[in-house]
Design brief:
Radius of gyration of chain A: 24 Å
Largest interface: A-B, 35 and 25 residues
Oligomer: heterodimer
Strand content of chain A: 15-25%
Distance between the termini of chain A: 54 Å
Structural class of chain A: alpha/beta
Shape of chain B: globular
Number of domains of chain B: 1
Shape of chain A: globular
Largest sheet of chain B: 2 strands, antiparallel
Number of strands of chain B: 2
CATH topology of chain B: ABC transporter involved in vitamin B12 uptake, BtuC
CATH architecture of chain B: Orthogonal Bundle
CATH superfamily of the largest domain in chain A: P-loop containing nucleotide triphosphate hydrolases
CATH class of chain B: Mainly Alpha
Largest sheet of chain A: 7 strands, mixed
Mean pLDDT of chain B: 92
């Protein structure tokens, strides 16, 4: 590779971190060279985030040490990490929405005792950095007016403005369009060319292959493998990640059946971000409809509509031949819609309640679980044990607080809760976000099994690969409107990407 | 300094933390006792003796604990659903008002019917008083901390107006006080000639009922779900707003029972000093009990013991009985810290 004589910019030696009995990081050592991109690959719960939090000073390691540019790094001090030239771009942005780009970037870099921000100097530097690294963004723009891609650029600029020489990117592409992802990768190339070093955290194998020089695979807190990117392939990396080879879900042909859910020019209010604007969509039995789109274009509103948390203000919704009346989550459940929400933690579960209490949550008032206002805890516990067994959930006991479960196990419980009554319509909103490869495959298998038995499924995902792999038909959402559906393989990734970016279809086909 | 989340505490730890909080409270308040020129050990001994050192002391403590159990339960129920009811004081007074309105001869009913009727009416009035803030919260997003807190002052002035006006006892020599409730509307004493009355029994029963509601019923499940995660509760189909209304009715009703029990069981009439801040102390009681309804009984007796014991102590040791207020307030702070420590581990550096 490049300059072998130079010392590594970052050296982690024997980092170990325990949380009670759990070993989150087990004697992890690696070095990062100047001008190198390392991909940190691993399942959720493999220890990636813990490791980066130690590096950035949010946690203190129980054992081991970190050296940056040959100097030992003071543990447990984010300030020291910043001063040593380590910058981090978090998955969830840490920007003040009501302030300008310039203010966000300069925030915290100047003494609080200065009467005011020296805007001219800051502006000049930001423009210089923008130009150098292809990070086009208007310093005077208010952050709330920016797109997700632009916000990410601001985050990167923020790190560069603080003279970061090592950049840590946590799942940076999760929120980007394919085109924005390409732009990000070009920026990363420029940064590396200027001598910066990058740690790229991801679970998307194709991105890791595209962007990194070296791949470190974490599994259960240990370094499971280290490969030069040029000398490995996706299959090997996937196997390293889960410890075994993962078979992709097999899709068998199913003849689509009746229309189970029909939206006819439905619009919603602005409660859930971007609103729906005259959306028509038909979900058929035995069919998975994939909804692609860049985050924030109305997918949340459509998901909320099907989940019952948002009511239509115009248009009609017909489910199983019946037009909906008063609309609520309860009504949605009553119409046989199973909901897998986008946010497992904030919406899908009640973290401080037990597994049992969460599993019965959608049906607690049914005669199965309650009598005369009293809950039947025995029936509830039996049901929880059944779901735990049927859906292969790993949890200490049905009494455990659901917060203590890993993301994958939490999702399995939600799947069990939603799919156990054999629903006719399934809303799966980002069902595999943040899950490890094994859990992703499991979720896909369950959705395909439901399709097999004749459920109509709407799969909303920002992961285009997932959409392409599972969907019988694909629709693209942009600015609250839906494209016409396309059958499997009918549109290329490039065409889908253009629809996602909001370039309308010419001579749009009639909606099915 | 940094906080790291900890796994759920064991039962032993859960019991240990309130005790540690109390020990810390004693340590902190002993500084004040020293400043007052007395020996902390002898002062705490006198407080303990004054609270539980004799039959009289013990009965007095239980009498004082009775309204605190009601207001503590009211707060525990509301806080469990994250409805921040700071207005138990107002609901207590409304309970007292209803008791004298119905209990001074307006309803010629036998005792076994009259007392339950008054109780239900008082609960309804207290519940409705809290329903207003609950509706403002759910419909318009008005912070119930502000509305319930301010209602305390409004209601106290309202009661003052009633006691100077329509409810004024014509035989009261001009004092702002109501007529005494009739004998049939009075809760009997548990031991003849002592102050402890059947309100204490009602309080214990209420605590058990509330415990059953929270643990065993659909409503308790809904309340806990709404308290832990309103958005998640809404998603799974729990009618969040309606649950908050029911919570408000229950919480306000429990607080009103404190007013009923004080008037009907102890004082006999309504005055402006019916409550020396029982509504506010109920918050301490509920927090010390970590919102557990049965724990409320224990913590109410503890807090009442401090007040009663401090009164006795101040007569002997010449340390102002205000020390009781400081102790109770300090115990709230130490308890909040203790609860924090059961959930998080502190890392220094």
């Amino acid at each position: 590779m490049s300059i072998a004589s130079q010392p590594p910019v970052l050296r982690l030696s024997g980092i170990t971190k325990r949380f009670g009995p759990l070993v989150a990081n087990d004697a992890i050592s690696f070095e990062l060279e100047r001008g190198e991109v390392i991909a940190l690959l691993g399942e959720n719960g493999a220890g990636k985030t813990t490791l980066m939090n130690i590096l950035f000073g949010h946690y203190v390691a129980d054992e081991g040490s970190v050296e940056a540019f040959g100097q030992p790094l003071q543990p447990g001090d984010p300030r020291a990490a910043l001063d040593a030239g380590i910058g981090m771009v978090h998955q969830h942005f840490t920007l003040a929405d009501n302030m300008t780009v310039l203010e966000n970037i300069a925030l915290g870099t100047q003494s609080l005792w200065l009467p005011r921000l020296d805007r001219a100097v800051a502006r000049l530097r930001i423009e210089q950095l923008s130009a150098d690294f292809g990070l086009a963004v208007d310093p005077a723009a208010v952050v709330s007016s920016l797109s997700v891609g632009e916000r990410q650029r601001v985050e990167i600029l923020k790190a560069l403005y603080r003279d970061a020489r090592i950049l840590i990117l946590d799942e940076p592409t999760a929120v980007l369009t394919p085109a924005e992802t390409d732009a990000l990768f070009r920026t990363l190339k420029l940064l590396v060319a200027k001598g910066l070093s990058i740690i790229f955290i991801s679970h998307k194998l194709h991105e890791v292959m595209a962007v990194s020089d070296r791949v470190l695979v974490l599994r259960s807190g240990r370094l499971a493998g280290e490969r030069a990117t040029a000398a490995t392939d996706r299959k090997e990396l996937a196997a390293l990640m889960v410890g075994q080879e993962v078979k992709p879900a097999e899709v068998t042909a199913v003849e689509p059946g009746d229309a189970l859910l029909v939206l006819d020019t439905v619009s919603t209010g602005r409660r859930n971000g971007a609103a729906l604007d005259g959306v028509s969509l038909t979900l058929r039995a035995g069919e998975i409809t994939g909804l692609a789109g860049v985050s924030g274009n109305g997918q949340a509103a459509l998901a909320a509509l099907l989940a019952g948390t948002e009511s239509p203000i115009a248009g009609t919704v017909v489910i199983g031949g019946r037009q909906i009346g008063d609309w609520s989550p309860k009504a949605a459940l009553g119409h046989g819609i199973a909901r897998i929400p986008e946010d497992r933690h904030a919406v899908g579960t009640i973290g401080d309640m037990s597994v049992t209490e969460n599993v019965i949550a959608e049906r607690y008032a049914s005669p199965r679980f309650s009598r005369m206002g009293f809950l039947d805890w025995k029936a509830a516990r039996n049901f929880a044990e059944q779901i735990i067994a049927d859906y292969d959930v790993k949890c200490p006991s049905p009494e455990a607080r659901i917060r203590l479960l890993s993301g994958g196990n939490m999702q399995k419980l939600i799947l069990g809760r939603a799919l156990d009554p054999e629903p006719s319509v399934i809303l799966a909103s980002q069902p595999t976000r943040g899950l490890d490869v094994g859990a992703v495959a499991y979720v896909h298998r369950m959705l395909l099994a439901a399709r097999q038995r004749g459920a109509a499924i709407l799969l909303i995902s920002e992961d285009l690969e997932e959409i392409l792999a599972l969907s019988d038909r694909i629709v693209v959402m942009s600015k609250g409107r839906l494209s016409s559906p396309s059958a499997r393989g009918e549109r290329s990734i490039r065409e889908l990407g253009e629809l996602m970016a909001g370039h309308g279809e010419e001579g749009a086909k009639d909606a099915a | 300094m940094r906080l790291e989340p900890k796994p759920a505490p064991s039962l032993g730890m859960t019991l240990l933390f309130p005790l540690a909080a109390i020990a810390a409270t004693l340590l902190l308040t002993s500084l004040l006792v020293l400043a007052a020129g007395a020996s902390p050990l002898s002062v705490f001994y006198l407080v303990a003796k004054g609270a539980a050192g004799s039959q009289f002391a013990l009965l007095e403590t239980l009498t004082r604990a009775t309204p605190l159990i009601f207001t503590g339960l009211a707060v525990a129920v509301a806080f469990r659903a994250k409805l921040w009811n700071i207005g138990a004081e107002a609901q207590l007074y409304i309970g007292g008002v209803v008791t004298v309105v119905l209990g001074t001869g307006a309803l010629p009913l036998p005792s076994v019917i009259l007392i339950p009727v008054i109780m239900l009416a008082a609960m309804l009035a207290g519940g409705l008083l809290l329903l207003g803030p609950a509706i403002l919260k759910t419909r318009f997003g008005v912070d119930e901390v502000v509305t319930t807190l301010l209602l305390n002052f409004i209601v106290l002035l309202f009661v003052s107006m009633l006691l100077e006006g329509v409810l004024k006892d014509p035989m009261g020599l001009g004092w702002p006080q109501s007529q005494k409730v009739i004998a049939d509307a009075q809760l009997p004493r548990i031991i003849q000639g002592k102050r402890l009355h059947y309100g204490f029994v009602v309080a214990i029963v209420s605590a058990i009922v509330v415990w059953v509601i929270m643990k065993k019923t659909v409503l308790g499940y809904e309340m806990r779900a709404v308290g832990h995660n309103p958005e998640g509760a809404r998603f799974v189909g729990i009618p969040v707003n309606r649950v908050l209304m029911k919570t408000a009715l229950l919480s306000g009703g429990l607080a009103a029972l404190a007013g009923f029990s004080e008037v009907s069981g102890l004082k006999g009439n309504l005055t402006l000093d019916l409550s020396p801040g029982y509504g506010y102390s109920g918050i301490v009681v509920a927090m010390l009990a970590m919102l557990n309804p049965l724990g409320v009984v224990v913590s109410a007796i503890f807090v009442a013991g401090i007040f009663v014991g401090a009164d006795a102590m101040s007569r002997i040791a010449k340390v102002p009985s205000y020390i009781a207020d400081v102790m109770v307030a300090t115990s709230l702070l130490t308890m909040v810290v203790a609860i924090l420590l059961t959930r998080f581990r502190v890392r220094w550096k």
